[in-house]
Amino acid sequence: MYAIAVHGGAGTLAAADLTPESDRAYRTGLERALRAGYAVLDRGGPGLDAVVAAVQALEDDPLFNAGRGAVLAASGQHELDASVMDGRDLRAGAVTGVRHVRSPVELARLVMERSPHVMLAGAGAEEFALEQGLAPVPNAHFATERRRRELDRMLHGEIEAGRESLMGTVGAVARDAGGNLAAATSTGGMTGKKWGRVGDSPIIGAGTYAANDCCAVSATGHGEYFIRAAVAHEIASLMRYRGLGVAEAAEDVVMRQLVELGGSGGVIAVGRDGRIAMPFNSSGMLRGAMDSSGRLVTALLKD
């Protein structure tokens, strides 16, 4: 059995804020990402290829806070983060603070496959991207009017930093036909972030984790709390050492441990049996899943 799940951010999404047009647009973007990843799985491709394909589709969609459409830092620049992990052998790659890389998740995979390191940051990550033949794009490539307005409102005190309508990331998890698990996550971070702030998305074990013996996880939400709780790895640990299923483990971490800390957000996770969990403690999380039967579901708010 193969399966894939994606998310497009979690936060204070209210039903009153959703128009029929925006609902349709979000679902279309999620479905496009699911089908991009599913096409890989359906032809027998590896889960790693599937999650990268799905995340790249979301990075290219200006509705989501990753790649084109990412939020702006206080400096007025886009600072992008991403990570990938291969459950077959626990290889991982991550980048943080990149400004001129069209697909941060592609660069994260190159860090994993073509460097001796796991995480590269800022100018060094950009230098590595050039060495790998990735053509740079201007920082303005990622800009949208919606994100400019969000930053302007934050700078004028109208909204709190990081509290845009959907804070967070995009991500994907998959189990391929061979039973291999993979996860990928990409984000623009928080609106108005300062001082080179890094959230959980590029941190292996916090925002991303995959291991064939238990699960693959991608997280979205208030990253500081996800780092403190080591959310992705904690879900894996509950499965490994307490024998919990993926749904029970993800529920415990997101709905109990995170809530006790005061953190909001959610995760998508797939177990080694192909079962998918998508819990969140915020009012909304853009999410979707598709399995080997071809059944596809998308959702935005609480069921």
Which helices and strands occur, and which strands form pairs?
Elements: E1 3-11, H1 20-42, H2 47-59, E2 80-86, E3 91-98, H3 104-114, E4 119-121, H4 122-131, H5 145-155, E5 169-175, E6 181-187, E7 208-211, E8 215-221, H6 223-229, H7 231-242, H8 246-261, E9 265-271, E10 276-277, E11 284-291, E12 296-301
Instruction: List the uncertain runs.
Output: none
| Shape estimate | globular
Helical fraction equals 25-40%
SSE ordering: EHHEEHEHHEEEEHHHEEEE
- Tally the beta strands: 12
CATH level 1 name: Alpha Beta
**CATH topology-level fold name:** Glutamine Phosphoribosylpyrophosphate, subunit 1, domain 1
Distance between the termini: 25 Å
The radius of gyration computed from the alpha-carbon positions, rounded to a whole number of angstroms, is: 17 Å
CATH superfamily: (Glycosyl)asparaginase
* CATH architectural label: 4-Layer Sandwich
The chain-level structural class is alpha+beta
Number of discrete helical segments: 8
